[in-house]
Fold this sequence. Notes:
rod-shaped
Amino acid sequence: MNRHLKELIELSKLDKSIDEFNPLIEMAQKKLARRVAKRDDIYKKVTNINSTIEDIKSKIDSLEHQIKSINEQLALSVAKERAVKTEKEMQALQMETELAKEKLNFVNEEIDRLNRVLEDREEELIEANKELDRAEIDLAKVSDEVSNKLTSIHEEKAKLYAERDRKIRNIDQKILAFYEKIRIWARNSTVVPVKKQACYGCYMKLNDSAYAEVIKSEDICTCHHCGRILYLEPQSVEVEA
Length: 241
């Protein structure tokens, strides 16, 4: 086999090994991202519950101020009774008092309702905070796992990159440039085997002349259909023989 072709085959396999780490990195990052998203969703839930609780408390405070104002109005009505001189004035004062009492009952009922809602929201907040604590613990655990995994991956990649650097220093630069040009679009199928007289990059059949050139392996051959670099695996040569 042509020495340069052999070097490109080895380089291609090395590049493929390096690129195979990418899905593992993406998988680890997605796993962490899911935990972060879950934690953030629960945090938003806690924030919304807190906001609702504050809003309910504000409404209760406002209603309690109304009660104070109504009680003052009722006390004033009692004082006014002493100064009433006519039946008409008495009827007007009584109607005003009745309306104030009805309003007072409504406000008290509304406060009771809001207090029940507040109690429910506070219980919901307790559960949401527990859920948030669990999510934080899970996130920290997964974060450590992902960090360790990525560290291991990067260490392995660094070894492969170092090996790649050693290989490309010994490869003819024109041939390397040719390889890199094809790799831009072919990625890990830059150098592919020929099986059953077909390119295993585009799966198109080679003509007899092109196939004979690949078998000889005297030069670097490319597929006439797709332009990938071709080689014949040793066992294939034996089968052809």
